[in-house]
Write the structure tokens for this entry.
Amino acid sequence: MNLLLEISRFIAQAVISGLWQGIVLISFLALCLRILSRVSASVRFAVWGFAFALVVAIPLLHLHILAVHEPYGASAVIHVGAVWGLAIAVVWAALIVVRVVQLLIQMIRLRRVWRRARPVAVAGDIFASLQACRRRAELCTSNLVDSPSVIGFFAPRLLIPEGLFAKLTEPELRQIVLHECEHLRRRDDWINLLQKVVLALFPLNPALLWVDRRLSLERELACDAGVVASTSAPFDYANCLTRLAEHRIHCRKVALSLAAWSRQSELARRVHSLLRPM
């Protein structure tokens, strides 16, 4: 029992110390990127990805410090009592179990959506865009999604809602395909999965939650930039995004999918980025 209390206390101390240091690190990076507002979305995504990894590494570093130094020696680690350490460790473990179960349920749902999708035949520029993608994706329609999405880690499918597919013009459909192909080229689906696994293992870290949202926004902005680079039509693409927002006015159904539109505030940021004079 004493050994369990000591282990729990060490883990709790490392986690708590990592929380405030992670928040300080993220605040500093956010201020720097705020000043450097003209940095591209791809660069910002790389910076936030590195910050995400650092926030995860900080508690592990504290565990090493606690293991090789005196338990109550001078360090940046916040010390807690054995009882509080055990309580924090129990809550942490319970939240990990809940998050992992939720993640598994989402993956099972994604698999069901993938299987029920209906392939559609395309030609012309849309077919050429699909063929040019490094990771070949199959264009499908589905009544289980409410926004264009890419699902399938090993055999990706690009899903268009059935009600939306018939309303899209050929240029709009090509823009959507280009956006999702950018996700595949960047391997955003695998990176997104890694983020969700880390969030499941560190459920009480607000810095990780905030960086996860920043990564989601920056990956969408980076893919938008790829679409504009291919089409040279930012105004048309901004109009396409607003049409997607009109179609998907309710909450997202598939949490692990990479959708072309996610939150209302993100849509405004993306449209403003497209229309901002260079």
Q: What stands out?
A: The first helix runs from residue 2 to 35. DSSP finds ten helices and five strands in the chain. Residues 70-76 have pLDDT under 50 and may be disordered.
